[in-house]
């Protein structure tokens, strides 16, 4: 009796990505969604603090109120830290941990080189933290972004250093093997 083994293929997963340049070319953003985690990579002109966040849905455009925010701040030696914040209004966002929530940043890297601030972080798309919005697979999500005039935080961002845009974070997706 002849026997043969069936070749099994690894399961496929969906990876979504996108990128854009905003604020008159001063703020470059890229995102990758993979296995329930969003990786965000930012490059911003200047040695500055950097903010990136999103709203649930159905908010007044451009507002910081009730936004899930990630901030990268830098000390006087240029050492950076990325943390999970909640923006309750038109004031500096508050660390989730100070509100009783959790810091859900999985990994982070920061640097300031040649007059550019680089920030990369990963965060789960679904958490149990009441100060994090779930990023669902919908048609659009309002993304907010800002940067400071320098590393001094929590000073307000200067005029023209903040904005928002609607993105479909799941807009450009491909199926890849789980081995990749």
Task: Describe this structure as you would to a colleague.
Helix content is 0%, strand content 47%. By secondary structure, the chain is mainly beta. It has a six-stranded antiparallel beta sheet, with no helix packed on it. Strand 2 and strand 3 form a beta hairpin. The protein is globular, with a radius of gyration of 18 Å. The relative contact order is 0.26.
* Distance separating the two termini: 37 Å
The residue-averaged pLDDT reads 86
Q: What's the number of helices?
A: 0
Secondary structure tally: strands: 12
Question: Radius of gyration, Cα only, in angstroms?
Answer: 18 Å
Sheet with most strands: strand arrangement: 8-9-3-2-1-12
Helix proportion: under 10%
How much of the residues is beta strand, in percent? Answer: over 45%
Which regions contain 5 or more consecutive residues with pLDDT less than 50? Answer: none
Q: What best-fitting shape do the alpha-carbon axes yield?
A: globular
- What's the story with the biggest beta sheet? 6 strands, antiparallel
> Helix- and strand-based class?
mainly beta
SSE arrangement, N to C: EEEEEEEEEEEE
């Amino acid at each position: 009796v002849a026997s043969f083994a069936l070749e099994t293929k690894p399961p496929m997963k969906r990876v979504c990505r996108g990128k854009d340049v905003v604020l008159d070319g001063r703020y470059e953003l890229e995102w990758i969604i993979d296995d329930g985690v969003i990786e965000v990579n930012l490059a911003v002109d200047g040695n500055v603090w950097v903010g990136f966040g999103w709203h649930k849905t159905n908010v007044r455009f451009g507002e910081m109120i009730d936004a899930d925010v990630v901030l990268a701040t830098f000390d006087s030696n240029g050492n950076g830290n990325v943390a999970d914040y909640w923006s309750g209004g038109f004031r500096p966002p508050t660390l989730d941990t100070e509100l009783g929530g959790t810091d859900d940043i999985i990994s982070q890297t920061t640097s300031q080189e040649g007059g550019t601030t680089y920030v990369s972080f990963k965060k789960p798309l679904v958490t149990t933290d009441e100060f994090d919005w779930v990023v669902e697979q919908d048609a659009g999500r309002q993304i907010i972004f800002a940067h400071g005039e320098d590393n001094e935080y929590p000073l307000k961002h200067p005029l023209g250093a903040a904005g928002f845009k609607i993105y479909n974070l799941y807009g450009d997706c491909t199926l890849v093997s789980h081995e990749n």
